[in-house]
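Dear support,

I submitted the protein below through the web form. The confirmation email said the job was done, but the results page showed an empty box. After a refresh the structure appeared. I'm attaching both so you can tell me whether what I see now is the final result or a partial one.
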Amino acid sequence: MPHMINDISHIQIGGRKSKLAVIQSELVKKAIEETSNIPCSILALSTLGDKVQTQPLYTFGGKSLWTKELEILLLDAIDEFPKLDVIVHSLKDMPTNIPEGFELGCIFNREDPRDAIVMKQNSAYKSLKDLPKGSIVGTSSIRRSSQLIKNYPHLKFESVRGNIHTRLCKLDDENNEYSCLILASAGLIRLGLSDRITSYLDDMYYAVGQGALGIEIRKDDEKIKSVLKKIEDKKATICCLAERSLMRYLEGGCSVPLGVHSDYNEITNELVLKGIIVSPDGTKYIEDEVKSVIKERQDCELIGITLGDKLKAKGAKEILDAIDMNRNINARPTEV
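What the results page shows now:
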């Protein structure tokens, strides 16, 4: 009979049905079973966001698409679906304002947060600056495309949706004009596809929470919290809480071109948080950074707000206010 913590005899994990999401749920399952010796089961569900691959995310709900259907099961079992104890998300897909009744129970296992260049198979090119003028780069985010237009004005950027394997098939298809894709390196690494990474975009700010896993729970579920405390990634937690605070303060969603870079020194306890906001056409951008010693979680919230104020003082709000996500979609040079 397994040893039980706080009388928990089993934990039901929920997540999306994509191959990457299942791998992420399995990472959490393994960690809980090893640290608390509590058996876990995984329920993998297709969400609306998985099913609709033809439209930019911001046109039909944004980040909440990935979370709402699973959150229902945190509250109660429905038909053949069991009640969940935790939901495993890619943290960058979690809204910064979590609905009432739920909370972010833990931040776990941040893989490399950088964006990566994946060139077409057998391509002679290694970096974006080497690509010929007019080459087409596939990316699914305004954050990426707006920074890339700023840095590489000789290239064209076009939307590409689908899971990672679908995107790679599109890239390698001889009939497609994509020269390369920009993808989060974390997903490629977790899927065992790190060999497809041509190079890393070290000069680009990444998405809030990119590479980390967020574990959502029922609010004030102290028994589950005590289990998750054992698998929490301290460095990722501090960095990602600060990143999410910045996004929340600027009222940004997954379609807003906010990029971040965070670095936490576990010896000095100093956190450096950098942020950039770029207009979708890449013509305007504002960036700044804040350094602060982190003594408690509240300090992560404060550093995000402090950086938000610095960006606002430079005109970030004007860029954000000028972006209308639901209008003139086809007229814009990029899409999510």
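Response: this is the final, complete result; the empty box was a page-load delay. The domain at 1-109+213-232 is CATH 3.40.190.10 (D-Maltodextrin-Binding Protein; domain 2).
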